[in-house]
């Protein structure tokens, strides 16, 4: 059976969630559609929209994912809690995707970024802890994590962000590098192919610049310098060219509503609508229960009225006078009468009396 609200706009669904006059079935149909949209998008859904987006639009989506994950673990403006966000080293990161997850909610991992600096008279190398961290968010939006999900591969978002006193600082006002990839793509970045070391031994190859970022080896500035050196242009120039190319793509302009819809999903806007619909359904249930209670109380008052009892008695007598009343019909009337205080003996006496009249 088709969903009445399938394909309806966000504003239409929101309007239903605020309406006080629709029937319960209308709310339930709207809720069914909203539940579907409130779910975390699959990797395919997310990737299709991102591939047809400019840099700022992609950044908005990445930031929304980071914010949503932090909110789900109650870590907004709070220091990272090891019980909620696990700290990993490079080996952990390499093996992260080999460990299946049964979680439905996003999981957050982090790695403190250090850098090697030379200090002192003899320029000895020292490990220095920076104020930046690698944040890895596993969205758990695949069938490998939950039977409810529809895809085999989920999404991983990596971000190199500033932290102060353990609190992550994200968003456009805070410098940061974001990347969105599938679980397989992340695994390939942190586990480059084996290479021959020249002596016939196969050893892990050196990771790409993207792999170094995903392993938490690079700060923002380190990455930008390395990117410029390797690509002969700045990252800013790369994204400027990317955005200019998007301006000429027909599918970019056709995807505008798709981008808006994705942002509503990532921002939790449908979750707000869902809350409104649940409130409306609860209100209707409460009002219905009150109406039923009032009706029952009215019947109870009538049942104490001699005129009502007489009507009930006469109704039963009418059934008994039928030529062949069914057992079910008799049982129904007898139960009704006993519920209202008429005894079984009185019922049997009436049956005997009417039975004699029939003869």
Topology (SSEs and partners):
Elements: H1 10-18, H2 24-38, H3 43-50, H4 55-72, E1 85-87, H5 90-95, E2 107-119, E3 124-138, E4 155-164, E5 167-169, E6 176-182, H6 183-190, E7 194-196, E8 202-204, H7 209-214, H8 220-231, H9 235-247, H10 250-254, H11 256-266, H12 269-303, H13 306-320, H14 327-339, H15 344-358
Parallel strand pairs: 1-2
Antiparallel strand pairs: 2-3, 3-4, 4-5, 4-6, 7-8
Helix pairs in contact: 1-12, 2-12, 4-11, 13-14
Describe this structure in words.
Helix content is 53%, strand content 16%. By secondary structure, it is of the alpha+beta class. It has a domain at 73-193 and 203-248. The strands form two sheets. Strands 1, 2, 3, 4, 5 and 6 form a six-stranded mixed beta sheet that branches. It has a two-stranded antiparallel ribbon with strand order 7-8. A hairpin with a 2-residue loop joins strand 4 (155-164) and strand 5 (167-169). The two termini are 57 Å apart.
For the structure shown, list the relevant keywords:
359 residues, alpha+beta, six-stranded mixed sheet, 15 helices, elongated
Number of helices, counting only DSSP H or I runs of 4 residues or more: 15
Secondary-structure-derived class = alpha+beta
What is the rounded Rg? 34 Å
Number of strands: 8
What percentage of residues falls in helices of 4 or more residues? 40-55%
The shape is elongated
Uncertain spans, ≥5 residues at pLDDT below 50? none
End-to-end separation in angstroms reads 57 Å
Give the overall average pLDDT.
84
Order of helices and strands: HHHHEHEEEEEHEEHHHHHHHHH
What portion of the residues fall into strands of 2 or more residues? 15-25%
Main sheet record = 6 strands, mixed
